[in-house]
Structure formats: C-alpha cells, structure tokens
C-alpha cells in the first residue's frame, strides 16, 4: 500500500521534521497538496468544490482539498493508500503492525484510522451493532510523550469506528475514497452532534468534522491503541 504525507512545499521544515521523527517508516511519498496561498476560495466555489455557505477560512479549505485530491487519486487508481499529516509521529513498528491489522480487514473495508485526536477520545463499537464505548488516552498528545512514541512498539486491535476527530494517519480504499468524496463535497458548514464535543450540536469547522457524518454508515475502523499520534492537540484546521 502506498504511503503519502501531506505537507506544503513552502514549509519544507515540516516535511523535514516528519522524515526525521519517522525515519523508521520507509517509502512515504511527499504530497504537497493544495497551497492556500495559490488558491482562490471563490474559484473553488465556482468549481462546486466548496458550497456558497461554507465558512471555512482559506487554510482549512486548502487542507481539506489536499485530502480530497488524494482520495480522487485513490479512487481512480483502484489501489488503497495511507495518508499522514506532516505532524504525525508513527510508532516504531508501524509498518509491521499496520500490515498485520490490514490483513484482518474484510474485503469491503472503506477507511482505517491509525491514530486520531479529540483530546484522546473516540467512539467505537465494542461488539458489532451492540455496545458503543468511549475510549480515552489522556496525555498522549503531550509533545514529549508523542515524540518518544516513535521509539515504542505497539500491539493494536481494530474496532468499528463511529466518531472521532483529527485523524493524523489513515488508510483508505478506492470505495472508501469514492464515498468520502461524494459525502464531503462540496465542503460545507453543516451542523453535527459530536460525542467528541461533549455530545453538543456544533457547526463543522473542518474536513475531519464533516467526515463524522459518514463513518458510522461506512466500513470504518480505528486502531486502538493508536499507531500514530499528534504531538499536540489539533484538528484539520489548516496545516497550510
């Protein structure tokens, strides 16, 4: 499975940091994505990629469309791929453990989150169609802990995903990419009830919030314990 890291070309220090802390993971290709400095939100609206009512700032739109563009490549190529934020830290045995978990997936899987952040909270099924549970891993996003995570061996399990925020690394299948494109475009400021926001009804402010509208109806999975972490609490709010 090909691996990509989204990192804007005009911030080479971000890509350098990713490669330094994840030197143990091979063949991660650089994907520059959409640069907010070169993008017109109005043009994106004319191209029906962004709705007229979308309130996302340009950096958030650019970050979202970077992921969407990769999804398009996956859907067209017919081959699944992994996508990482350039702030992600991958565990020492990421390649072996992610391959082991991927081998257990059903043939119709759509998306697998290797790690995410919502103050360390996500919602998943403990037993298929029966129990919904909330798991937290406090302290995981403190910078020293996350940085040291790259030296740790992790044994993980997959659970059906219901909700989470800020995936810092995930695998997506061609079918999953097609579903996410159709669901998330045009980008829009929609209202969501998010367990990661205390069960409150909130307006989507980024792509990862919109994605929560579709996880439960797709063959979505999350690895726990996570195989990658963010060094600080963040969402897809514009790494651009």
UniProtKB/TrEMBL annotation:
Ranges where the Glycosyl transferase family domain occurs: 64-182
GO molecular function: transferase activity
Full protein name: Glycosyl transferase
Keywords per UniProt: Transferase
Keyword Transferase: yes
Listed Pfam families: Glyco_transf_25
Family annotation (InterPro entries): Glyco_trans_25 (IPR002654)
Organism domain of life: Bacteria
């Amino acid at each position: 499975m090909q691996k990509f890291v989204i990192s804007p070309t005009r911030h080479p220090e971000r890509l350098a940091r990713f490669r330094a802390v994840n030197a143990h993971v091979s063949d991660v290709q650089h994907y520059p994505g959409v640069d907010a400095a070169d993008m017109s939100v109005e043009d994106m609206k004319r191209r029906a990629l962004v709705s007229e009512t979308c309130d996302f700032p340009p950096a958030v739109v650019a970050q979202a469309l970077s992921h969407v563009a990769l999804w398009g490549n996956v859907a067209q190529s017919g081959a699944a791929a992994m996508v990482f934020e350039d702030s992600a830290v991958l565990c020492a045995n990421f390649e072996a453990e992610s391959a082991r978990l991927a081998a257990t997936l059903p043939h119709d899987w759509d998306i697998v989150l290797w790690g995410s952040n919502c103050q360390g909270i996500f919602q998943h099924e403990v037993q298929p169609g029966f129990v919904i549970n909330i798991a937290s891993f406090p302290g995981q996003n403190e910078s020293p802990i996350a940085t040291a995570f790259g030296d740790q061996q992790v044994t993980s399990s997959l659970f059906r995903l219901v909700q989470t925020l800020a995936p810092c690394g995930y695998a997506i299948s061609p079918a999953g990419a097609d579903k996410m494109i159709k669901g998330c475009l045009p980008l829009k400021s929609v209202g969501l009830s998010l367990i990661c926001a205390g069960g409150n009804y909130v307006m989507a402010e980024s792509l990862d919030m919109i994605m929560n509208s579709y996880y439960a109806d797709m063959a979505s999975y999350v690895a726990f314990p996570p195989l990658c972490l963010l060094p600080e609490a963040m969402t897809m709010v514009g790494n651009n």
